[in-house]
Amino acid sequence: MNLPMAPSPTVSPALTADEISALTSEVRALAAQQNAVILAHNYQVPEVQDAADYVGDSLGLSRRAADVEADVIAFCGVHFMAETASILSPHKRVLIPDLDAGCSLADSITAEQLSAWQARFAPARPVTVMYVNTTAEVKALTDYCVTSSNAVKVVEHILEEHGPDTPILFGPDMWLGAYVQKELGLQGSGTFHIWDGECHVHAGIRPSDITAMRADHPDADFLIHPECGCSTQVMEYVAAGDIATEGVHMLSTGGMLDYAKEHVGHGGTAIMATETGMLHQLRMAAPDVDFVAANERASCKYMKMITLPKLRDCLRDLSGEVKVDPVLAERARLPIERMVAIG
Length: 343
Ligand code: 13P
Ligand code: SF4
Hints:
Bound molecules: 1,3-dihydroxyacetonephosphate, iron/sulfur cluster
Distance between the termini: 33 Å
CATH superfamily of the largest domain: NadA-like
Shape: globular
Radius of gyration: 20 Å
Structural class: alpha/beta
């Protein structure tokens, strides 16, 4: 399968400690001057996370974007996240420090593809559930958005509201879809249809990474993001009794942080299967726990396109504005608001 990919990003050189300190002061002063709030995703480089007002997962950031009192939101994440913030807060100026920061998962389904998929079921109208990692055009054709932290709850809610045999189209992440399907016992139901898109970073964390990590750290806990290419395998290990159920946690990035906070003082090792930027928040939250990446190459180049110099420039110049056509935004808002309200 050939998945469309975002343009190849350029990696910025590392900053010295003095540069980070000077840039952080500039960024904070500009944020105050522009009455701006800085939101950063858990996968951002550490210095951008440290300069932000709020660091979180996709759901937490959407909630902040909807509630925040500020004229400007500087969104340190990827484009669909800034677009979601703009849809939720149309009267605020939403800026992204690099407009080219894309997402391979959002690129794996277009509005045309989604509408052709829906048309295959006509005259029936399945409920369309899309991960928040999608464009505004795709969201405008969607009934419910989800993030990794509430996908199971949202699908459960739909089945309760519309009945257990309701046909559902779930996309674009096939690994998250497989996880939801398994959690809710929908395999073989014939009603839960999954798109075959994926995030190239998470799909690259393979079962062989987990096998190698288990051998190196036999007593470690596993924190697995449900977008990972190893998630199905890990569920199978658990089902076969090869890994103890209590040591395996399928979590969004926000859920991983909650794990860290609950395990302060416990020591030990936790193997983390997600983008490596997550290690920064985990290690700060529980310094005595040894957090190890399941795959050290799992770095999202699009997330890493956001740097402190670019954040400073966008706050200074009010550049990189993300705007969504008001008619499209109106249609895309309902599924996002449903996502924010559930879970
Ligand atoms: P969450 O922060 O919702 O877990 O999302 C992970 C992700 O890949 C965002 O692009
Ligand atoms: Fe998209 Fe994957 Fe990067 Fe998240 S980690 S922004 S899903 S490409």
